[in-house]
């Protein structure tokens, strides 16, 4: 990934939360959105997302403050700077929104986002997110296991992988005019990874719908893998027989592998992965194998050479 903009953004570069929402509402009005689409009720109520905390997925670590979770992001569709998504992602229109599930499934289907929001019970799960660039956060995500959706579409016997594809629309995503990646952004998981209970189909964080810069209205969160596996603003989920080639693999095959499991022992081509900086901390901390989820996921990779399958 680009490292020029690797320094922490100044607080002054982050749009304050209230202004962000004011501006977004203004943009909707300016774009000629009907009054009905701005209902029901006050915007704050509309942005809330109810979920019960899942006690099995809590962490003793301190949560990363909301302003950092929503102000320091990677979302190259809106620029490569960490402050760019918070500044520019208001142009993303998240309603109407559909997700097409296709490929090796018995029941392909296009889901409206409203339908997906009701498909299973929303849970709040506190997960670490470890970026390949060696920073990390602890975030209260809201969603339900991806397996809930997978079960509905009934994968065929040929389905070995799942591919996630982001919206492709340079009008809404001005960063797509740059050739830094091949668009649309795509990522993939092996079927057993996709079905693992940790893999979260994610709609919100901190009690709210996802802010645009965090991948509204729907993203994936795979906590034992580097952050780039967690594709944002998904419009297509495709089941395939063959391993997908992700946007990052296309951009740098020696730097970004398909597995991308957090592994302190396998360095990135240009830097060590042994340590990480939790956003907000001064000192670095050791990176944990599988980002601290080894007990739950190491078994998926038994017998695999993780130096080779990085
Ligand atoms: N579509 C899309 N998804 C993406 C990215 C991106 O550039 N485009 N960046 C990834 C990377 S590198 C990381 S670390 C996480 C960051 O998620 P966050 O900004 O919500 O913390 O999103 C991932 N998902
Ligand atoms: Mo990342």
Please specify the SSE layout and strand pairing:
Elements: H1 17-30, H2 43-47, E1 52-53, H3 66-69, H4 84-88, E2 98-103, E3 109-112, H5 113-118, E4 123-130, E5 135-145, H6 146-153, E6 161-166, E7 186-190, H7 191-195, E8 200-205, E9 208-209, E10 219-221, E11 234-240, H8 247-251, E12 275-278, E13 285-286, H9 294-297
Notes on the structure:
This protein is an alpha+beta fold and 310 residues long. It has a single domain (11-301), classed as Sulfite Oxidase, Chain A, domain 2 (Alpha-Beta Complex), CATH 3.90.420.10. Helices cover 18% and strands 21% of the residues. The protein is built from 9 helices and 13 strands. Strands 1, 4, 5, 8, 9, 10, 12 and 13 form an 8-stranded mixed sheet that branches. It has a 5-stranded mixed sheet with strand order 3-2-11-6-7. A hairpin with a 4-residue loop joins strand 4 and strand 5 (135-145). The longest helix has 14 residues, at 17-30. It is globular, with a radius of gyration of 19 Å. The protein binds the ligand Nc1nc2c(c(=O)[nH]1)N[C@H]1C(S)=C(S)[C@@H](COP(=O)(O)O)O[C@H]1N2 and molybdenum atom. Ligand MTE binds at residues 73-77, 129, 131, 166, 185, 214-215, 227-228, 230-233.
How is the main sheet built?
Answer: 8 strands, mixed
Secondary-structure content class: alpha+beta
Q: What sort of overall outline do the alpha carbons produce when their principal axes are compared?
A: globular
Number of domains: 1
Second CATH tier, the architecture: Alpha-Beta Complex
In angstroms, what separates the terminal alpha carbons? Answer: 16 Å
């Amino acid at each position: 990934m680009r490292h020029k903009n690797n320094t922490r953004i100044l607080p002054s570069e982050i749009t304050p939360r209230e202004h962000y929402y004011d501006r977004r509402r203004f943009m909707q009005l300016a774009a000629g959105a009907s009054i009905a689409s701005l209902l029901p009720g006050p915007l704050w109520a509309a942005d809330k997302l109810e979920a019960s905390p899942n006690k099995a997925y809590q962490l003793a670590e301190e949560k990363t403050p909301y302003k950092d979770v929503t102000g320091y992001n990677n979302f190259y569709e809106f620029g490569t700077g960490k402050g760019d998504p918070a500044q520019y992602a208001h142009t993303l229109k998240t309603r109407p929104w559909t997700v097409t599930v296709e490929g090796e499934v018995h029941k392909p289907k296009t889901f409206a986002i409203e339908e997906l929001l009701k498909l299973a019970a929303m849970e709040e799960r506190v997960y670490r997110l470890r970026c390949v660039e060696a920073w990390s956060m602890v975030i209260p995500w809201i969603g339900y296991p991806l397996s809930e959706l997978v079960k509905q579409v009934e994968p065929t016997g040929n389905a070995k992988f799942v591919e996630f594809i982001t919206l492709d629309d340079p009008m809404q995503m001005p960063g797509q005019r740059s050739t830094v990646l091949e668009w649309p952004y795509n990522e993939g998981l092996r079927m057993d990874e996709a079905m693992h209970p940790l893999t979260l189909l994610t709609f919100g964080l901190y009690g709210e719908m996802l802010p645009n810069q965090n991948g509204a209205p729907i993203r994936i969160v795979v906590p034992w893998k580097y952050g780039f596996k967690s594709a944002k603003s998904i419009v297509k989920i495709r089941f395939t027989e063959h391993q997908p080639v992700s946007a990052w693999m296309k951009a740098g095959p020696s730097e970004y592998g398909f597995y991308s499991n957090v592994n302190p022992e396998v360095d990135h081509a240009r830097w060590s992965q042994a340590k990480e900086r939790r956003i907000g901390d001064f000192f670095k901390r050791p990176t944990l194998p599988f980002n601290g989820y080894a007990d739950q996921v190491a078994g998926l990779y038994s017998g695999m050479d993780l130096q080779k399958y990085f």
